[in-house]
Amino acid sequence: MTYSGLKPSSTVGEFDLIQRYFHELTSQHGVELGIGDDAAVISLVDNPLSRLVVSMDSLVSDIHFPSCSSAYDIAQRSLCVNLSDMAAMGATPRWFTLALHLPEQLAVDEWLSGFSKGLGEIANCHNCALIGGDVSRGNLALSITIIGQVQADQALTRKGARPGDQIYVTGTLGDGAAALRTMFSESNDPMDLRLYRHFYSPTPRIKEGVLLRDLASACIDISDGLLSDLGHICLKSAVGAEITLSCLPVHSDLKTNFSNDFLDWALSGGDDYELCFTVPSGRVNEIDRLVRQGQIDATLIGQIVEGDDIALVSDSGKQSINKSGKKHRGYTHFV
Ligand code: ADP
Ligand code: MG
Questions:
Q1: Is 139 within 8 Å of 61 (Cβ atoms)?
Q2: Cα(144)–Cα(167) distance, rounded to whole angstroms?
Q3: DSSP 31-54
Q4: Of 15, 18, 146, 276, which is best to mutate to test ligand 1, by the most ligand atoms within 8 angstroms of its C-beta?
């Protein structure tokens, strides 16, 4: 498709685009935290103790899910990835709206009932109610706006990490990328089924986010890859980080079956929807206790340092990640 009147020029990257063209529009009364985090935090004039937390994510066919995906799976994935941003903020999800662009041939009972079932299961699981939306004809795409709540001053943000803080991730890394590799094999192998479920219904770490409200100095969900998303914490907090490669939690299936790829996937694969968070060193014993009690599945992977680089530490030494290098940049739209 061509767009009239536009001269060919270089494409603007996703994060530059937001920063250059939208960031300045965010400062309105009541916006406590605007563009630039996992969600916005809005204060309510008549309720000084509560904050609304608002986030939106769109899923487009053949970009965020294969067009052959079932309606049930598409619905589950779209709500799960939106809930993940609530988890990253330590918010309790409450309500969501849904904009659905649907090709005419999918506006049939078979597709819509599967979609509704998938959406309803995840919504019920998290006590999150669909409160409105919009339907139009078009190429298959969905946008969900999700609204949660958190008490004043309790939202977790990307800003707040300090040198000496310890870096943790929940669950395992690399599963999102591995899922893309195996998803089309139609096998009943337990590994393939686990990865399939991980891709279409990644567990939003809501419970963990709530537990971390008082404890974490910064938090983000890993949607684009650990290095890219930890990079956002470093940028917003004006710090650097050191990651110990041998500490990265990777499922044994990946280590066995994808020995050449699992490390790259854990660092930059994306679609993991785990939380990456930092904790002041004086409070790591509280995380240890939550881990021992089985309340949170988290692994210590490194520490925050002065500077602005992310370094990977292994037996062979320390390697700084060149931020402009493509290899570990994670997923971005456009360039
Ligand atoms: P996430 O990966 O956590 O969903 P994104 O990388 O999509 O976050 O977005 C980063 C920040 O930029 C968020 O605060 C988001 O609300 C904001 N943002 C993204 N697109 C737009 C847009 N079109 N207009 C305004 N803000 C945007
Ligand atoms: Mg996010």
A1: yes
A2: 30
A3: EEE-TTSSSEEEEETTEEEEEEEE
A4: 18
Amino acid 100 reads L
Strands (E) across 107-190 are located at: 129-137, 141-151, 166-170
Residue 131 DSSP code: E
Q: What's the token pair of residue 42? A: 């809005």
Question: Is the pLDDT score of 335 beyond 70?
Answer: no
Position 192 pLDDT exceeds 90:
no
The Cα 72–Cα 137 span in angstroms is: 19
The answer on pLDDT for 61 being more than 50 is yes
From the number of C-beta atoms within 10 Å of its C-beta (0-12, 13-18, 19+), residue 248 rates as: buried
Are 179 and 199 in contact, with CB atoms under 8 Å apart?
Answer: yes
pLDDT band at 148 (very low <50, low <70, confident <90, very high): very high
Structure tokens at 70: 């079932």
Cα(221) to ligand 2 centroid in Å equals 5
22 in contact with ligand 1, CB cutoff 6 A? yes
